[in-house]
Amino acid sequence: MKSRKPGKQRLWLHRMPLHRRHKLLSATLSPELREKYGRRSLPVRKGDRVRILRGDFRKLEGEVLEVDPKRMAVTVDGALTRKADGTEVPRKIHPSNLMLLKLAQDKERERILARTAPS
User: What is the three-class DSSP state of 100?
Assistant: First the structure.
């Protein structure tokens, strides 16, 4: 990307295809996971255990219920907000405000981590 103009930056993000946005949905790893995998961050997936680092739900730990690449947001179990009519709805949180504590393991993720493991 060449331009630093804010409008062009927003347009670039808006036009980005969903399969490439997934990489931008990354959260920092906890110190234990960072040492174990030799990485600083990983894309968030459904089933991961996270801690919220910023905002109204700071220090809340919960499981990731949904990852929305179109809105660049993650839904965490326990992060609820009350609407005007009294119903509670899940609050979307940007992944940069999260820390991964425990990873939901599947074959694809294990392959990725094995490929990038420190030698």
Answer: strand
* Residues 73-110: tens digit of each pLDDT: 999 999 999 999 999 999 999 999 999 999 998 898 88
Whole-number Å distance between alpha carbons of 98 and 55: 10
**Which residues on neighbouring strands pair with residue 119, listed in sequence order?**
none
Is residue 113 within 8 Å of 38, Cβ to Cβ?
no
**Rounded to whole angstroms, what are the CA distances from 77 to 12, 40, 56?**
31, 24, 14
Provide the token pair at 47. Answer: 């089933």
For domain 27-104, the CATH class is mainly beta
- pLDDT tens by residue, 28-59: 999 999 999 988 999 999 999 999 999 999 99
Q: How far is CA 12 from CA 2, 17, 22, 27, 56, in A?
A: 11, 10, 15, 21, 29
Give the DSSP letter of residue 59: T
DSSP code at position 117:
-
Q: Do residues 77 and 29 touch, judged by C-beta distance below 8 A?
A: no
Residue at token pair 């009350």: 82
Q: Which residues pair with 42 in a beta bridge?
A: 27
